[in-house]
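Retry 2 of 3 after timeout on previous attempt. Resubmitting structure tokens to design endpoint.
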């Protein structure tokens, strides 16, 4: 049996915690992932899109995010 690191779970936690820590909790205070301090913000676009789709984070029309 092969072991693989839980990349999606780690990435989810990094994104959600970074947005929460920088105060991005509403559309008015939304930040880009880079502004929130997420390393390589465009590296795992599918994970970010899934977080938006499931409602864990929200995307503004101009591409900023908040929890």
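Retry 2 succeeded. Sequence:
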């Amino acid at each position: 049996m092969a072991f693989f690191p839980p990349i999606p779970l780690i990435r989810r936690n990094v994104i959600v915690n970074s947005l929460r820590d920088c105060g991005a909790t509403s559309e008015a205070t939304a930040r880009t992932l880079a502004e929130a301090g997420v390393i390589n913000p465009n590296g795992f676009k599918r994970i970010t899109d899934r977080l938006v789709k499931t409602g864990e984070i929200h995307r503004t029309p101009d591409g900023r995010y908040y929890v």
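Attempt log closed. DSSP finds three helices and two strands in the chain.
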